[in-house]
Amino acid sequence: LQNIVSAEYYYKISLGIEPQGYVASIGLGLLEVQLNKLDDALKRFTEITQNYPDSDKAFSGLGIAYSKKNKTSNAMDAFSQALKLNAENKPAMSSLLDLSYQSNQFDQVELAMKQYLEIHPNNLDILLGLAGVHYKSNRFEEAQNTLSLLLKINPNHIDANSLLCKIEATIEKVL
């Protein structure tokens, strides 16, 4: 209901009753991020990941808090762990991809995308993202191969065709 004061109050009451309550802990952690209480959020999400090591949501929350503190490497590690636990965590994938482009470090997001494609091999967005990662990593042949797969599914994909032209132009400059 967007009533932050009330939400914080009731999350704390819930945690008073059940100190390791998962839903209330996640909710309060996200609220702390929203309120810019980042140290509190980091402490809370770290505790949640210890109590619930299989929670992709807890690792995503940790990634969000680290990201807001400009601790990119820690944020990427947290989002990567969230994706190892749940390859279909779209917010974690999106956040990891954004941070990868900001830091020009693509190993973790590439691994996460490949894991996702094992489940959903025809996902055009992830295929395009992976081709972009290959392109940014100067792995033009891999980018072309990935785009080739994508274009077999949708030959008229505008972004894929555009990236393919960009790659071909880059290769021609090199030669």
Describe this structure in words.
The protein has 175 residues and is mostly helical. The protein has helices at residues 4-17, 22-34, 38-51, 56-68, 72-85, 90-103, 107-119, 124-136, 140-153, 158-174. The longest helix is centred in the C-terminal third of the chain and has 17 residues, at 158-174. The protein starts with a helix and ends with a helix. 37% of the residues are buried. The model has no long low-confidence stretch (mean pLDDT 93).
Name the helicity range: over 70%
> SSE order in H/E notation?
HHHHHHHHHH
Poorly predicted spans: none
* Distance, first to last CA: 59 Å
How many DSSP H or I helices?
10
Alpha carbon gyration radius: 20 Å
The overall strand count is 0
Keywords:
0% strand, 175 residues, 79% helix, mainly alpha
At a glance:
The chain has 175 residues and is mostly helical. The protein has ten helices and no strands. The N and C termini lie far apart (59 Å).
